[in-house]
Amino acid sequence: MLEILPETHNNLLAVRVSKALSIADFDQYRNLLRDLMGKYKEAHLYYEMVDLDLGEVNAVAAIENGMFDVVHGLDYGRVAMVGEKKWQEWAANLISPVKKKGVRYFDLSEKKEAMAWVQEK
Fold it and tell me: Gene3D superfamilies in the record, alphabetically (predicted)?
């Protein structure tokens, strides 16, 4: 499930993902990012993962999302990934090289710090 957080404004997209992610969730996420990238020099992203079940993530949509990241990597500003599992930290490290400013991983207990960091000017 994709939830758009109220901190989303200007060039910041703040989302929480949980449980399962469908093709529609990935499409909505990419469309929101694409819109921000079209309006601003770079888009910042706060990506929080809570109770995310990797087995319930649509594999085709996840691959499409990975390709989107590769193509648009230079359009990202700060990216904060917030999670609770080791595989999420590994995923953040894996995608970091394709983002212009990389990805910084935070534990779920550090979500306030992550939000402050991603909003820094």
Answer: SpoIIaa-like domains (3.40.50.10600)
Please name the residues in contact with 4: beta carbons below 8 A apart, sequence gap of 6 or more: 13, 14, 15, 32
Q: Which domain holds residue 91?
A: 2-119
Residue 104 is classified by DSSP as E
pTM given for the model: 0.89
Tell me how far apart the alpha carbons of residues 86 and 102 are, in angstroms, rounded to a whole number: 18
**Beta-carbon contacts of residue 28 (< 8 Å; ≥ 6 apart):** 2
Q: Is the pLDDT of residue 83 over 80?
A: yes
Domain count, the chain: 1
Residue 53 is part of a domain; what is its CATH number? 3.30.750
Rounded CA-CA distance 2/31 in Å is 13
Determine the Cα–Cα distance for residues 33 and 13; give it in Å rounded to an integer.
Answer: 7
